[in-house]
């Protein structure tokens, strides 16, 4: 069983009400059992919603209480992101998933690079909140930009 970001599967759950549908991912997984997640929606955030970025670190730092998730309007939505990560993990454990394909650069799902918290488009090395929690629990996380690595794992 593989967990996949809902937006990559075409669900309109992005902050702006759109999706990040990736045909390569859906074709690659068409004969696989998958579970679709959107941690931000699981955490109680609406669609659409203001964009959010992690300030003061990355997802690991958020889980440790060092960094915060702030939306572009200045609201602290850290607890929503943590709750969404926990809900995602609970579902993943329930179904016994060991591999995840999550949206690159997302403050929830990013696995290698995230936005730096300045809302200027600048990026930094780091993981999103959900990815950080999943990795702590031994779940292997990829993003849609790592298609060759995903194919090698399937």
TrEMBL record:
It comes from the Bacteria. It holds the Pfam family 2-thiour_desulf. InterPro entries: 2-thiour_desulf. PANTHER family: HYPOTHETICAL CYTOSOLIC PROTEIN, INNER MEMBRANE PROTEIN. This is Uncharacterized protein. It comes from Orenia metallireducens. The lineage of its organism: Bacteria, Bacillati, Bacillota, Clostridia, Halanaerobiales.
């Amino acid at each position: 069983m593989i967990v996949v970001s809902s937006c990559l599967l075409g669900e309109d759950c992005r902050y702006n009400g759109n999706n990040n549908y990736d045909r390569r991912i859906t074709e690659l997984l068409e004969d696989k059992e998958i579970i679709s997640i959107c941690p931000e929606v699981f955490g109680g955030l609406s669609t659409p919603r203001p964009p959010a970025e992690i300030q003061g670190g990355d997802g690991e730092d958020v889980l440790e209480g060092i960094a915060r998730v702030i939306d572009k309007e200045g609201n602290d939505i850290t607890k929503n992101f943590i709750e969404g990560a926990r809900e995602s993990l609970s579902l993943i454990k329930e179904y016994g998933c060991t591999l995840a394909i999550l949206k690159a650069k997302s403050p929830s799902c990013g696995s290698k690079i995230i936005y730096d918290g300045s809302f200027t488009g600048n990026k930094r090395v780091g993981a999103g909140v959900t990815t950080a929690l999943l990795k702590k629990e031994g779940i292997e996380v990829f993003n849609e930009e790592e298609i060759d690595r995903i194919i090698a794992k399937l």
